[in-house]
Amino acid sequence: MNVSGQIFSRLTGYSGVSTLVAARVYPLVLPQKPTLPAIAYQQVSDGTDKGSTGEHEQWYQFGCFATTYAGAAAVADQVEAAFDRWAGASGGVVVKMAYRVSRNDDYDVATNSFRVLVDIRFAVSE
């Protein structure tokens, strides 16, 4: 199991994020001709098994898109804030902690927009 459903709920329910992107949070890719700002997220790794405890880490990357660099950075800041030491449980998956791994700036030619990529790891048990 993964934390994808919890991620969507957390982002769309976190006021700092929802104020900027509303419900424009998408798995994997943005729709064609998206309304910006928006977020696209993907699972990068299902993590390392920590033995018989059932604990492991899952790594997700969040693409924070906007028409300006400042706008993309503001969305990225709120994504980081939403998951800073966050813990939650749903559907038999328990997120014990989330933490930022890295952050990178980018420009997306396909959407003609600025993108800040935020990588977050989730410590998970099932």
List keywords for this structure.
126 residues, STM4215-like, 6-stranded mixed beta sheet, 3 helices, alpha+beta, 6 strands, elongated
Structural write-up:
The protein has a six-stranded mixed beta sheet. It is built from three helices and six strands. The protein is 25% helix and 44% strand. Helix 2 runs antiparallel to helix 3. The chain has one domain: STM4215-like (2-Layer Sandwich). The chain has helices spanning 4-13, 15-21, 69-83; strands at residues 25-27, 38-45, 55-66, 88-90, 93-108, 113-125. A hairpin with a 4-residue loop joins strand 5 (93-108) and strand 6 (113-125). The longest helix is centred in the middle third of the chain and has 15 residues, at 69-83. The protein has 126 residues and is of the alpha+beta class.
